[in-house]
């Protein structure tokens, strides 16, 4: 016996009002039967159908399936029971409106691997219900009768041993009703067909049995025609579990849903892209400014006793520097770290001299050079270039008048240690040795600058210029690039000069080398030893960050700056969390449109696992445009003239993409979880009652 109901009872409890759905129902059903269930409204017909179809639980009695008790079934066992054994034709159809008629039927054919075969079977069934012409129409475009025929074809497609139909011809004309009744009669040859109807007389010529309910109880049970015994093997479900097929089906379902609801897909994809761009802007704008104070480049040449000072405000005024200096007990200060250590490329000028990079360092405690003195420290291997190197600085007219040389085995480059006065007075001039000059489209290397009193204001003369015909052209110097000068002459050729020497009048010369009153970003404090510098960091006034030039970062007395940073980070993290929660709420709301669809999938034998996975895949597809478009948006933002945006960095890109992928998959996870305990009957209530 396929199904045996023994004293089944169902009591509904809604708001403490108890209603009897069915009581004491004892019935047996077998394959090959075509059973009509009739009765007045409220007699318990739907309740009975729901119990057999596992869309509802029963409280009393026992339902035997193939002789085995079911009252101990867990939710997943009921799920499997429904998945394998039950096909339902809903009174309200529960057609998936975004899918075509063919796709609706195919959903119930997932057990067939071959897509062509799947379509063939679906078409065959649709032909049987007379819908060949409508296969490509969407569910939403069908008439009531067409919807009903579609869900009948879909129920038959599932090929399960039990077919339950609630008013299956309610929306059909006589001719179509007869076709459907015949079809059901036909399939009942090796299945159990149970039809709930108000019109028992219509189905009587086709049915084998008629069960009448009254007030929740069986009032009549009449055999119309004795069914033929079931053929061997009838009622057994084909297609055992297959992991690979499940994965493929999940992917197909995901793609189907992705394509069938273009508005949802477009909306969520767009929302994701907006989220990605917002995150990108937040990271770009805030991320950079937040990290800055701790990211300062440290001196490559570790000089004992040097502290680099900066503050969260970004600039240090001169008065403040004196204050910091005396608080920390520094011997010397320098307002701009850049000037305490810079590099000059000395060009090759024939003879023995190779091109050198000279690092100019200010180091009062190590060599203590006086004003206009310098100490050249060079590796022993470079000794032969000593004289030439010295002469570069002595002849450059930058305030260096004597150079003492130290040759060292340990030096790995050439260093020029400068005196404090020489540096403050002539620092920019020294840096200008071998500076760059823009001449029309070309860049030329300026070796040094000279005063030529014969020149008028705004004019320069180029000596040893390889650039012919530049007379009256404009040049801009890298040293102080806010003014252009015009070239008066270009034929002061001199073979001795490696680069270009620029001659200008005294006023212009002074103007080019005026540092101007630009605020400094950092300052250096100098101490006789590393230990003293370390100790001085503790004494910095509040708000300043001190870094030992040796490389480690020490922060002291910078409470405000630091707290502000931490607060910023916290605010940003809190903002991100709020943002994530917000988009989660929005996405979860919109994803609810799948509630009914997923309940329908379950009635069609698509396991929860497959539909859950399909949603993960669908969300991954929805996410694809963001993956590709984010760098494009970032690139556009970066190239907009005047934009301070940087092109998205690899780390930020990965972070944003992963964060959003996580959020969107989390939404899918939340949705899957929310429908886990959901009763199919409740979701589809409209359809069942
Ligand atoms: P029929 O399908 O024969 O019209 P039902 O099986 O729907 O009857 O209903 C049987 C009884 O159970 C009715 O009294 C109905 O009011 C009650 N009932 C059905 N569903 C619910 C429900 N979800 N909550 C409370 N009472 C219900």
Write a structural description.
The protein has 21 helices and 25 strands. With 689 residues, it is α/β, with parallel strands linked by helices. It folds into 3 domains: 3-240, P-loop containing nucleotide triphosphate hydrolases (Rossmann fold), CATH 3.40.50.300; 250-293 and 558-686, no CATH class; 306-554, no CATH class. The strands form 5 sheets. It has a 6-stranded mixed beta sheet, with helices on both faces. The longest helix has 33 residues, at 559-591. It is elongated, with a radius of gyration of 43 Å. It starts with a strand and ends with a helix. Residues 290-300 and 551-560 have low confidence and may be disordered. The site of adenosine-5'-diphosphate has 13 residues, from β1, β2 and α1.
Which features would summarize this protein structure in a list?
6-stranded mixed β-sheet; 21 helices; 689 residues; alpha/beta; Rossmann fold; 3 domains
Question: What topology does this entry show?
Answer:
Elements: E1 3-14, E2 17-29, E3 34-39, H1 45-52, E4 60-65, E5 68-69, H2 75-85, E6 86-89, H3 101-106, H4 115-128, H5 144-157, E7 162-166, H6 174-187, E8 192-196, H7 200-203, E9 209-214, E10 217-223, H8 243-260, H9 262-291, E11 306-311, H10 318-328, E12 332-334, H11 337-340, E13 341-346, E14 356-362, E15 373-379, H12 386-395, E16 402-408, E17 414-418, H13 420-432, E18 435-439, E19 442-451, E20 459-463, E21 474-477, E22 484-492, E23 500-504, H14 506-512, E24 523-526, H15 530-537, E25 544-548, H16 559-591, H17 595-603, H18 608-639, H19 650-674, H20 680-683, H21 685-688
Parallel strand pairs: 3-8, 3-9, 6-7, 7-8, 14-17, 15-16, 19-23, 20-22
Antiparallel strand pairs: 1-2, 1-4, 4-5, 9-10, 11-24, 11-25, 12-24, 13-14, 15-17, 18-19, 18-21, 20-23, 21-22
The protein binds adenosine-5'-diphosphate.
Adenosine-5'-diphosphate is lined by residues 12, 14, 19, 21, 39, 41-47, 689.
């Amino acid at each position: 016996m396929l199904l045996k109901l023994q004293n089944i009872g169902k009591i509904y409890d809604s708001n403490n009002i108890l209603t009897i759905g069915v009581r004491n129902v004892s019935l047996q059903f077998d394959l090959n039967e075509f059973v009509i269930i009739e009765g007045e409204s409220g007699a318990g017909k739907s309740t009975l159908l729901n119990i057999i179809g596992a869309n509802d639980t029963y409280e009393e009695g026992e339902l035997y399936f193939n002789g085995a008790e079911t009252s101990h079934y867990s939710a997943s066992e009921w799920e499997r029971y429904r998945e394998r054994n039950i096909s339902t034709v809903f009174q309200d159809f529960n057609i998936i409106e975004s899918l075509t008629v063919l796709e609706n039927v195919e959903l119930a054919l997932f057990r067939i691997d071959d897509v062509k075969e799947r379509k063939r079977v679906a078409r065959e069934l649709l032909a049987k219900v007379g819908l060949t012409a409508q296969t490509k129409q969407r569910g939403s475009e069908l008439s009531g009768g067409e919807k009903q025929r579609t869900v009948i074809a879909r129920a038959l497609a599932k090929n399960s041993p039990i077919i339950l139909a609630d008013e299956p011809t309610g929306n059909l004309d006589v001719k179509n009703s007869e076709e459907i009744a015949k079809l059901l009669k036909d399939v009942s040859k090796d299945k159990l067909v149970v039809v709930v109807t108000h019109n028992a007389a219509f189905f009587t010529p086709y049915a084998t049995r008629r069960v009448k309910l009254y007030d929740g109880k069986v009032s009549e049970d009449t055999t119309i025609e004795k069914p033929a015994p079931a053929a061997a093997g009838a009622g057994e479900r084909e297609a055992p579990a297959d992991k690979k097929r499940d994965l493929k089906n999940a992917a197909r379902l995901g793609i189907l849903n992705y394509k069938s609801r273009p508005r949802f897909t477009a909306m969520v994809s767009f929302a994701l892209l907006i989220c990605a761009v917002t995150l990108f802007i937040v990271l770009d704008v805030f991320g950079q400014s937040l990290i800055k104070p701790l990211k300062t480049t440290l001196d490559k040449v570790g000089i004992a006793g040097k502290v680099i000072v900066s503050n969260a405000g970004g600039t240090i005024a001169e008065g403040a520097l004196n204050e910091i200096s005396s608080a920390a007990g520094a011997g010397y200060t320098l307002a701009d770290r850049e000037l305490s250590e810079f590099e000059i490329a000395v060009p090759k000028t024939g003879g023995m001299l190779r091109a050198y990079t000279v690092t100019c360092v200010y180091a009062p405690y190590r060599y203590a050079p006086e004003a206009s003195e310098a100490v050249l420290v060079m590796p022993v291997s470079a000794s032969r270039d000593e004289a030439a190197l010295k002469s570069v600085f002595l002849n450059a007219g930058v305030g260096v008048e004597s150079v003492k040389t130290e040759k060292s085995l340990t030096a790995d480059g050439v260093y020029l240690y400068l005196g404090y006065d020489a540096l403050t007075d002539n620092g920019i001039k020294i840096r200008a040795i071998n500076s760059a000059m823009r001449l029309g489209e070309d860049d030329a290397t300026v070796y040094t600058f000279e005063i030529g009193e014969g020149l008028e204001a705004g004019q320069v003369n180029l000596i040893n210029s390889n650039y012919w015909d530049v007379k009256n052209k404009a040049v801009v110097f890298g040293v102080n690039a806010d003014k252009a000068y015009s070239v008066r002459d270009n034929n002061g050729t001199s073979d001795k000069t490696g680069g270009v020497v620029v001659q200008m009048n005294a006023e212009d010369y002074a103007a080019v080398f005026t540092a101007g009153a630009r605020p400094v970003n950092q300052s250096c404090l100098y101490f006789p030893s590393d230990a003293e510098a370390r100790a001085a960091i503790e004494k910095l006034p509040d708000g300043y960050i001190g870094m030992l030039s040796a490389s480690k970062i020490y922060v002291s007395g910078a409470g405000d700056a630091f707290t502000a940073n931490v607060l910023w980070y916290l605010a940003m993290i809190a903002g991100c969390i709020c943002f994530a929660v917000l988009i989660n709420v929005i996405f979860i709301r919109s994803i609810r449109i799948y509630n009914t669809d997923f309940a329908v999938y379950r009635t069609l034998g698509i396991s929860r696992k497959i539909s859950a996975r399909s949603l993960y895949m669908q969300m991954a597809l929805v996410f694809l445009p963001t993956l590709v478009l984010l760098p494009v948006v970032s690139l556009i933002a970066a190239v907009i003239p005047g934009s301070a945006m940087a092109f998205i960095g690899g780390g930020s890109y990965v972070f944003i993409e992963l964060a959003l992928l996580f959020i969107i998959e989390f939404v899918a996870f939340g949705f899957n979880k929310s429908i886990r305990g959901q009763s199919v009957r409740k979701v589809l209530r409209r359809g069942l009652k």
